[in-house]
From TrEMBL:
Organism: Marmota monax
This enzyme's EC code(s): 1.14.15.6
Protein's name according to its UniProt entry: Cholesterol side-chain cleavage enzyme, mitochondrial
Reactions listed under catalytic activity: 6 reduced [adrenodoxin] + cholesterol + 3 O2 + 6 H(+) = 4-methylpentanal + pregnenolone + 6 oxidized [adrenodoxin] + 4 H2O; (22R)-hydroxycholesterol + 2 reduced [adrenodoxin] + O2 + 2 H(+) = (20R,22R)-20,22-dihydroxycholesterol + 2 oxidized [adrenodoxin] + H2O; (20R,22R)-20,22-dihydroxycholesterol + 2 reduced [adrenodoxin] + O2 + 2 H(+) = 4-methylpentanal + pregnenolone + 2 oxidized [adrenodoxin] + 2 H2O; 2 reduced [adrenodoxin] + cholesterol + O2 + 2 H(+) = (22R)-hydroxycholesterol + 2 oxidized [adrenodoxin] + H2O
Keywords assigned by UniProt, alphabetized: Cholesterol metabolism, Heme, Iron, Lipid metabolism, Membrane, Metal-binding, Mitochondrion, Mitochondrion inner membrane, Monooxygenase, Oxidoreductase, Steroid metabolism, Steroidogenesis, Sterol metabolism, Transit peptide
Protein family according to the UniProt entry: Belongs to the cytochrome P450 family.
Pathway in which the depicted protein is active: Lipid metabolism; C21-steroid hormone metabolism; Steroid metabolism; cholesterol metabolism
Compartments, as annotated in UniProt: Mitochondrion inner membrane
Length: 141
């Protein structure tokens, strides 16, 4: 989600330049006209149409860990955005997530959540932040 909005001097942008400069056009990834959203607001498309590396969550998790995904998660996401486009879904284990690259799309989602949004909580992260009295940030609120 952050790759498009990063500044040019960002470490992530410098480390991922080869991924970010690759073209994303191709079969299944048509280029949206500049300045116009590529998503039709007339009727939502089915969840199954969102590109994905596969529906076998345990196999995806195996590949993720084998590639040291936890230590290189930012590269993992940038590679997947290049491969699947500005929105993709990924199932790791029994958890399925949708990743969005465009900050404007993310803002739209946050605005439409309603007064009581639900967040996926990761208990060890929450315990760490509570124990050390650290701010939770957007991810854990």
């Amino acid at each position: 989600m952050l790759a498009k909005g990063l500044l040019q001097h960002s470490v992530l942008v410098k480390g991922c330049q080869a991924f970010l400069s690759a073209a994303r056009e191709g079969v299944g990834h048509p280029r949206a006209p500049t300045g116009i959203a590529g998503i039709s607001t007339r009727s939502p498309r089915p969840f199954s149409e969102i590109p994905s590396p596969g529906d076998n969550g345990w196999l995806n998790l195996y590949h993720f860990w084998r590639e040291n995904g936890a230590y290189r998660i930012h590269y993992h996401h940038v590679q997947n955005f290049q491969k699947y486009g500005p929105i993709y879904r990924e199932k790791l284990g029994n958890v399925e997530s949708v990743y969005i690259m465009d900050p404007e799309d993310a803002a739209l989602i946050f605005k439409s959540e309603g007064p009581n949004p639900e967040r996926f909580l990761i208990p060890p992260w929450v315990a760490y932040h509570q124990y050390y009295r650290r701010p939770m940030g957007v991810l854990l609120k």
